[in-house]
Design a protein that fits this description.
six-stranded mixed sheet; alpha+beta; 43% helix; 26 helices; 966 residues; 18% strand
Length: 966
Amino acid sequence: MTSTSAPTPAAPNRSRRVIAISLAVIAAIAVGFFVFASLYAEWLWYEQLGYTSVLLTQWLARTIMFVIGFLGMAVPVWLAIQLAYRLRPVYVRLSSQLDRYQEVVEPLRRLAMWGIPIFFGFFAGFAASAQWETTALWLNGVSTDTTDPQFGMDTGFYLFGLPFYSGLLGFASAVVLVSLLVTALVSYLYGSVRIGQRELRISKPARIQLAVIAGLYLLLQAASLFMDRFRTLIAPGERITGASYTTVNATIPGLTILSIVAVLVAILFFVTAIIGRWRYPLIATALLVITSIVVGVAYPWIVNTVQVRPNQLALESEYYQRNIDATQAAFGIDGLEKTDYDAVTDAEAGQLRSDAETTASIRIMDPAIIQPTIRQLQQYRQYYRFQDPLDVDRYQIDGQSQDTIVSVREVNTNSLGDAASWQNTSLVYTHGYGMVVAKGNERTADGDPVFIESGIPAAGFLSESDFQPRVYFGENSPLYSIVGAPASTAPIELDYPSGADGGSETKTTFDGDGGPSIGNIFNRLIYALKFQSEQILFSDYVNEESQILYDRDPKLRVQKVAPYLTLDSDPYPSVVDGRIVWIVDGYTTSDQYPYSTATSMGQAIEDANNPLPRIALDNVNYIRNSVKATVDAYDGSVTLYAWDEEDPLLQAWQNVFPTTLESVSEMSGDLMSHVRYPTDLFKVQRAMLGVYHVDDAQSFYQRDNAWSTPADPQNPDVNQPPYYLTMQMPGQSAPSYSMFTSFIPQSTGTDSRNVLMGYLAVDSDAGAQDGVKGEDYGKLRLLEITANTTIPGPGQVQNTFDSDPAISSQINLLRQGQSEVLNGNLLTLPVGGGLLYVQPVFVQASSGTQLPQLRKVLVAFGNEVAFEDTLNEALNALFGGESGANAGDEEVAPVEPGNETPDGETPAPTVPAADYQAALEDARQALQDRQTALQGGDWAEYGEADQRLTDAINRLLELEGEGEGE
């Protein structure tokens, strides 16, 4: 008899397991190194900039919050699972279904008992980490010395404490709720809770655990209900934000009652844990639900319906006034200076004599239109570009303040085409060059800007002093550039496209401290990984002195070193103390200010110049321009100045980052002279002033004087932007650099009226003294147009310009051939006792090379309009032949399109300008009279006006013939 032995089982393939483990370890090391590389690169960036404390504070805060969140969730959940399992009944008869469940769960029990807490812990940790700013503000909050009118609490409680307490209660409630659910699940799986034959059986240990957890949850809800009383002061209501009559007399008492009832129900659950009777807490819970419906919903509805609605103004006035006062304070509009303005509409000779300084500064160069002109005249090479739209600023020239259009010439590596090699984009084309400055109130004879700083190499009033024109940090800088080299190394960076002795270009080497060093192999490896560029590691041009410049956008740099700020959407360049610097305005914002109405910041700042804004904290009911920041365009250094040192939010953040801000007293007078009132803050304030320009509750309730911002005349889908201008408001002793906007009635559809209701200006001149803000800086002045005067709004004025027969005929002449007419910004100025509108008109080719040039200027005052070659001529024509003031283009003699001289000089006129102007004015008046007669059906008057029009046209033809003959 033979037998065969069973086959020996194959030995595990140990080599395969070793390989798998090795690959896993290698993958983990690789991932870990990539994570380390990212963090280390960030550290190097902050270290070079001198703000490592900001990075360390964030890392430490996030880590601590993650650990607290992780442990705060994981430990209670783990304890709940462990207790439910360890206190399970040992001998219990389970159903066959539970037996099958246990067979599935038991092999995974240990993993689940640790895995479930860890799973929930990670989620809680990441959620807590994201709230580090809320916790930091709570720990470092300050008193504001302002109390709310309902509870008498310091407003700092709402700004710093309430968000933290609300978040803490929400987190604790989630922890207890998850613990309750896992306890119930484990108790059911292991027989502590049994359901069957219409009966619920709970073991004593499970009863105690479930009842205690339920009681804790109700205590947390009681605390949350109590905190809800304070949240009513920041909750939006039917007409206002904050507690109204119904809230104060029904909702708040109801929340107090509910919180007390919730505590009593929680006590009953604790009692149940001892005596084992579920009936009482369950009945009490049902009563709590019913009570919440009665006192939380029904009673407030009855009070509002029976008491408030029939007597709304009488009962709500106090609370409306609270809302008005708080909103004005929170948005910084409580110091508004209002003046009734009885604007005149008749234009008379010499009417602008007292406003000569304002009219001399009127900006006729539109920064949103002339960018192509600047590009054509000043770009020089395809690898440069200018920002669109251009920025505005002012400079002291010969002791006089000059409003200017400014832009820096930035490098544009995207236009290199076939030359866009790594060496060119990273090592050669590293920076832009120079600042272009043009007068805002002047033009050349050809309609081009008048440059006072331009060219490559730079030339002008700025270059007369020690001026650093190179722009390594800007709004359109390359992703990264590698700069720096030993002194003995030949330069490879292109400085500008012209050289000495007829050379084709000038080279330079960056000699500042602008980026982390990559002089050693380890740092080169770090940045090769960061930018996924092996050339950084292997290029021979990278040496021991090399630096890598990245994150070069001014807003990004400020945001990284001051993460608590909301930044203005319009950084602008200025030359300060011989350096080009970007000036960035930073705001501290909140949505927690009691009784203040919130607004969408994104919608408020959206206009024709900023069509798609993105804001992290969009709904705000508190805002301050707390920080002025500068970014050096050469070395990227960032300086933060505590502009509003009274702002409690800034004071709290100074406690969090104590070494990052400098006092206003450290600002130089040169920097102070270029600081301006920020655009976005002004837009938010004007959005609120549409309703909150009133001071009393009755006007607020009636909404009989609500305003809105006019639509942009060239783009009716968005608001008209505010404009900067040196001007003198009624009541001011002298002109100052200001920003202004206008208001029209708040209405929609066919009922809308485009007439002026208000005119708002803010003093934007901070002065020029070291460390001292101008006394009137930030002063808001509002002109309220009196009801007995009708002043056309921007839309109505634009319609008048477009429909006026004489103007239309001249516009059509400008459009002849391949020309396109562009209407510039429509400016509104309070001069001559009324409101003057000014709009430059540009002409450019409709295709091909487009070079917008100023050809005409439209002006309007009351119902009168004029359309001339220069602003000075237009004002004189509008005000009876002599306005009494001169504009900035007074001495310009424009040339007709097509007659420009090669050197830009104006040819000698061959036709007397006065005769030609008189004939043109006769034609305009005759055309207008003929149109009026046609509308009125007066055919005799129509025939007479038509004859006058014919005579005027014949005179114009004769004059043109005389000019051609000469």
